[in-house]
Specification:
Chain lengths: 533, 350
């Protein structure tokens, strides 16, 4: 269905892809993995000709899809065989209502009106969107928007579906919805799906084959998922646990791993439980929230929330998209004014404290870390941060060096990798030395290596006596670092306690290792290694 | 299921009433036109965001009346008649003769200014009614195939505005997080850069998505036909402009009015039809034009026709003389009342 023959791609002088040889069969679900910047998006966009027709650059070799050479067919001429959904599905919406959006592609292709009508109805049912048909696109949740975007390319009946990080921005439940949909499409319609994803733990068990991009100039590895995973440098916890325990064949899903793990569970039942992550602050309360209410217009975002944060704690805030996690973080730095209740950070009410003073009490790295950055170079950004936070010269630059060593000063912040950009934003915030550090969805777009680095940084900060609050969907990150987990639903706190207690009992928030080894309270591969040692 | 009327029907209805309003200065007739639009909007409006447009246009209309009255009282030469008040006046140098500041204000002078302003305000209110009743995106969907690209550009621009506003809010938050004041000229400059970058980013992403979904597929068209299309459309639209001008300005020569408008419309329609064949697009669920559309559009056209006929027949009272009490001529009033028809149609079921 898709054939890459000795494909290489250069952008300017930099090679992005070299010697890619692939042959993806009809009905295959192919996962493209690799670290940030290894050319995953480029490979996906080469399938429908966006690379190089839209992006520029030099493509060598030959890419054919359903017998059509992308050299002679620009993306619009491939629209009837390849459906492409980009990283941010909302950025690709052309109309304003769900139903119209589903029809848009067919209108462009000149599909007759009666066929269009029928396909829109079929697609609404197939993707479970019937209840949303008249909804304005701006009001959809992340998971719904992603499903509408998939639906809008499916209506043209493509043979290939290409998805760039379809679940990265979604909460665990929304991601399940999207992935279940994809699996149905592959199994029932025989669609060929190519997708890139950082969160391998969510998709690896669904993939038939895998393309692993090494990113060091060598050609990519391509083969059955199990074979590639056996020695892939990026691997989800289930695979790492399998390697640790020496299981063969290597399990890719929690179900397979759980069947292989029976002897391991017996050993764990008698072993002493792993020590919970220690809290090494002085126990001083840095922030307290009592009966907090926040509204946006008439819409309540938080209703009667109580929370206190002590130094040295790492608190994970979990919950659905729109549950009120971000609102709570915003209230702690004074970006929203409470409609009721009381917020104290340090010894001041955040919304009444001028920003200049507030940065010394609490710092927030927003969901899109790039929002914080607007200088032309890394050096200028750091100098501006020193001035903003009235710190001594070079303070921000040395912090950044600690978080992400060896980055060129002259680079534009937009040219940094996701992980480096997050580190830079974090360095800017830390320049004010706030005891309370808040991170909103920090692992979005981070690969495993960057995530490991983030885990180290978070632990170091906690050891220095900072208190951290992370709003996140990433259950694996929570299992690694959080000393306490707070679950928010509908603007209220529904669970608050030590991470091991809160997440083990939850089907949505339990990490993979937790699910495999339950009832033993072991949440991460490292803990399993310690217990077994 | 309730069906929305074709947006074109609403615009035809509203423009019919607006045309009727331009042909008279009788305040009672003008107020009647306003009342008719208000009634129809009250009965037929939806909960959509654009439905609030009517109130906004009403306020603009009131503002126009007030400004016109103030200017009329202070600056305009007054019609002779009963002096209401005498404003302190300024003697202007001789080279500014013809202008006047202050002096006596007559009731007749105010009436002339008020009638004139009311006419303009009524036209505005008619346009507001069309805006409130016709869904803008549906209207764009009904543009001819040749103008399709323009329609898409407008829809995209409409969705960009709220996104840009959201982005501005995010960047302002980020400024606060960095400990900067979020007010003042300097913060404005720091705001502009990231917001522009964001808008550019989104446009590039959108362009890629549209390309990938088959936007801009065209059928091969010979060059001569492309040129013929362009000439027909441009020439036709020019003729339509001239024709509209002739029709709305009662003093223009008759040849400039209806005949020119008709010829221009035919020309432009032919051009658009030719141009539309260039693109292989089809339409998903186009709005049908059925009986309710004929009734709505027709009632507006009839209102305009009744007013125009009365004007041609020289009916008394269409342009009341200041000082005398304004009347309500029967034929035009009946025509305007006909435009209440859409309110009686209620919700239509399909």
């Amino acid at each position: 269905m898709i054939r890459f023959e000795r494909v290489g791609f250069r952008y300017g002088g930099t090679p992005v892809l070299t010697d890619v040889d692939l042959e993806i069969e009809e009905g295959e679900l192919c996962l493209v993995a690799g670290r940030t910047g290894t050319g995953k998006s480029t490979l996906l966009r080469a399938v429908n000709g966006l690379v190089p027709h839209f992006t520029g650059g030099v493509l060598s070799g030959r890419v054919t899809v359903a017998g059509r050479d992308t050299r002679d067919h620009p993306p619009r001429e491939l629209a009837d065989v390849v459906g492409y959904v980009g990283q941010d599905p909302r950025a690709g919406f052309v109309s304003d209502v769900v139903e119209e959006e589903l029809a848009y592609g067919m209108e462009s292709l000149g599909v007759p009106p009666d066929v269009m009508r029928r396909r829109v109805e079929e697609t609404l049912d197939l993707l479970g969107l019937a209840g949303l048909r008249d909804r304005p696109l701006g009001t959809l949740s992340g998971g719904q928007a992603q499903r509408v975007a998939i639906g809008s390319v499916l209506t043209t009946h493509p043979k290939v579906l290409v998805l760039d990080e379809p679940t990265s921005a979604l909460d665990p439940v929304g991601a399940e919805d999207v992935l279940a949909t994809l699996q149905r499409l592959v199994h029932d319609l025989g669609l060929t799906v190519v997708l890139a994803e950082h969160r391998l733990e969510r998709v690896v068990h669904l993939a038939d084959t895998m393309v692993l991009l090494p990113g060091d100039g060598r050609p990519p590895a391509y083969g059955p998922t199990g074979a590639i995973m056996a020695d892939s440098p990026v691997a989800p916890p289930v695979v790492r646990l399998g390697r640790l325990a020496g299981w063969s064949p290597l399990p890719l899903s929690v179900r397979d791993a759980r069947r292989a793990a029976a002897p391991l569970r017996e050993r764990l039942a008698v072993a002493p439980p792993p020590a919970p992550p220690s809290v090494n602050g002085d126990g001083r309360t840095l922030a307290s929230v009592r009966g907090l209410e926040v509204r946006y217009g008439p819409v309540p975002a938080l209703r009667g929330v109580d929370l206190s944060v002590a130094s040295g704690e790492v608190i994970a805030l979990m919950g659905r998209n729109g549950a009120g996690k971000s609102s709570l973080l915003r209230a702690l730095v004074g970006l929203v004014r409470p409609a009721g209740g009381r917020v104290r950070v340090g010894d001041a009410a955040p919304h009444e404290t001028p920003p200049r003073v507030m940065v010394r009490n609490a710092g927030l790295v927003p969901q899109d870390a790039a929002d914080l950055l607007y200088a032309e170079t890394v050096a200028a950004e750091c100098a501006a941060a020193d001035r903003d936070m009235a710190a001594e010269r070079g303070a921000c630059r040395s912090l950044f060096e600690r978080l992400a060593p060896g980055v060129d000063d002259a680079l534009h912040p937009r040219d940094l990798s996701e992980g480096q950009r997050l580190s830079l934003a974090l360095a800017v915030i830390l320049t004010g030395r706030p005891p309370l550090v808040l991170l909103d969805e920090p692992t979005r777009g981070l690969d495993y290596t960057a995530k490991e680095r983030l885990v180290e940084i978070v632990r170091d900060l906690a050891a220095d006596g900072h208190a951290l609050v992370l709003a996140t969907h990433d259950v694996e990150l929570v299992a690694e670092v959080a000393t306490r987990t707070v679950v928010v639903a509908e603007g209220e706190i529904v669970a608050d306690g030590p991470t091991a207690e809160v997440v083990v009992s939850s089907p949505a928030f339990a990490p993979q290792v937790g699910k495999i080894l339950a009832p033993a309270p072991v949440l991460t591969v490292d803990q399993a290694r310690e217990v077994l040692a | 299921m309730n069906r929305r009327l074709h947006p074109g029907a609403w615009w035809l209805w509203a423009l019919g009433l607006a045309t009727a309003a331009t042909r008279t200065t009788d305040p009672l007739l003008l107020l009647l036109v306003g009342a008719v639009t208000g009634t129809v909007v009250a009965v037929r409006r939806t909960d959509d965001p654009w439905a609030r447009a009517y109130g906004m246009f009403l306020r603009i209309g009131l503002f126009v009346v007030v400004v016109r009255l103030v200017f009329g009282a202070v600056f305009a030469a007054q019609a002779p008649g009963t002096t209401l008040v005498t404003l302190p006046s300024v003697t202007l140098p001789s080279w500014m003769a013809g202008l006047r500041v202050g002096g006596p204000v007559t009731a007749e002078g105010l009436a002339v200014a008020g009638y004139d302003a009311l006419r303009l305000a009524t036209v505005l209110v008619c346009v507001g009614a069309a805006n409130a009743l016709a869904a803008p995106s549906r209207l764009l969907k009904s543009v001819p195939g040749a103008l399709y690209e323009v329609g898409v550009a407008v829809v995209v621009a409409m969705t960009f505005a709220p996104q840009a506003v959201a982005h501005v809010r995010r960047v302002r938050d980020a400024q606060r997080l960095r400990g900067r004041a979020d007010r003042g000229i300097r913060s404005l400059r720091r705001l502009a850069m990231p917001v522009l970058e964001g808008a550019l980013d989104r446009s590039v992403q959108l362009a890629a998505a549209m390309d990938a979904r088959g936007y801009g597929r065209t059928a091969a068209v010979p060059r001569t036909r492309r040129r013929a299309t362009a000439a027909l459309v441009l020439g036709g639209l020019l003729a339509v402009c001239a024709g509209l001008y002739g029709l709305l300005d009662g003093q223009a020569p008759a040849a400039l009015g209806t005949p020119m408008l008709l010829a221009g419309s035919v020309c432009a329609a032919a051009g658009l039809w030719l141009g539309g064949r260039r693109s292989p697009r089809t339409r998903y669920r186009p709005d049908p034009w059925a009986l309710p559309e004929w009734v709505t559009g027709g009632s507006g056209v009839l209102a305009a026709a009744a007013m125009t006929a009365a004007g041609l027949a020289g009916t008394e009272g269409l342009r009341p003389v200041p000082g005398s009490a304004p009347g309500l001529p029967a034929l035009p009033a009946a025509g305007v009342l006909l435009a209440l028809a859409p309110a009686l149609l209620r919700r239509i079921r399909t």
